[in-house]
Amino acid sequence: MKVFEGGVTAPQGFQAAGLAAGIKKENTKDMAMIYSIVPCKAAGTFTTNVVKAAPVKWDQKIVAEEPFAQAVVCNSGIANACTGEEGYGYCRQTAAAAGEALHIPAESVLVASTGVIGKQLPMDILAQGVKDMVPLLSPSRKAGSLAAQSILTTDTVKKEIAVEVEIGGQKVTIGGMCKGSGMIHPNMCTMLSFIMTDVEISKELLQEALSDSVKDTYNMISVDGDTSTNDTVLLMANGLACNLEIKEKNQDYVIFKEALDYVNTYLAKAIAGDGEGATALFEVRVTGAQSKEQAVILSKSIVTSSLTKAAIYGHDANWGRILCAMGYSGAQFDPEKVDLFFESSAGRIQIIENGVAVDYSEDEATKILSEKAVTAIADVKMGDASATAWGCDLTYDYIKINADYRS
């Protein structure tokens, strides 16, 4: 697998655009479009929150009922959530405007929104933004980057990746972009992720690959314990790689799935590491578990613990908080068998062995915990299963950002 600098325009046949339509203040980029020159098979996964934003409902319907999709329109600044029939109507109007401008069916246009909940979209601005983006569509790296920049809210950096693999003797590319910084918690988060590929694959296997991949990637991240109304992951495949269509779970499927997992893992970690106010990516690996389910429960409990996240911010090897988080997770284990390690680019150190603190250097632990990416490894010595979760530290700035988000 070749990993390279790129995003949604990396696969053959995809174009993108981004601009400042005027939804946000101060001429900030706030609209993006992705377009395939040919129809695509589409797959999606969406928020588990009972309160679902209008774009989520629209996309769920398109993915489930329509034979193909060909474009995505995304705005930032206003979430179009809790907006009733009027908000859903705006999704339909946005899709219609894009369909007319691109000369494709409105039912082939997926829409997404992110931002403040409860406000109605300014449809005159949105419709004009759609028209203005069409002439700007380009397969260039710069166009993809502008689109990635235009979907951000409280994110501090844009998040993109592209990979290339060989399937059936043909070069296949997957390129993706996402946004997410706060209101991040399984299952899925205040996050939007758009993944484009030129692979030829059946719609059924495309959906299965995405649904399976999400379990170990986006559903394993948490910033603040809040599950959003707008979470959406869209995967579109236009088949322009001209590989023999993947219709069964053969070696070609395995290769594609591994590449998709890599893209989603990268983007999920990018979201966790860019958590609102965060100074460090916090990774938790649980090993030696009796089952995958047990490992998932334990790792998520640790990575979501506010006390543990605060300790990571303070570069404090407060292992008691980790053991405590494991204890209230609901998963059964023997605390007197747990080994715990911290590691980062500064080194690796064992903190506890069989549930008891070892004679470790606090200074060395602090040094390891002072890096931009920190990992805690808990071995529960019960089996061969494992799971990894990602989060970030909890800082003063998280409160500042969310105390005045609407203003």
Automatic annotation (TrEMBL):
First-tier enzyme category under EC: transferase
Pathway named in the protein's UniProt entry: Amino-acid biosynthesis; L-arginine biosynthesis; L-ornithine and N-acetyl-L-glutamate from L-glutamate and N(2)-acetyl-L-ornithine (cyclic): step 1/1; Amino-acid biosynthesis; L-arginine biosynthesis; N(2)-acetyl-L-ornithine from L-glutamate: step 1/4
Annotated positions binding substrate: T153, K179, T190, E276, N402, S407
Keywords from the named record: Acyltransferase, Amino-acid biosynthesis, Arginine biosynthesis, Autocatalytic cleavage, Cytoplasm, Multifunctional enzyme, Transferase
Reaction catalyzed: N(2)-acetyl-L-ornithine + L-glutamate = N-acetyl-L-glutamate + L-ornithine; L-glutamate + acetyl-CoA = N-acetyl-L-glutamate + CoA + H(+)
NCBIfam families associated with the record: ArgJ, PRK05388.1
Protein name as annotated: Arginine biosynthesis bifunctional protein ArgJ
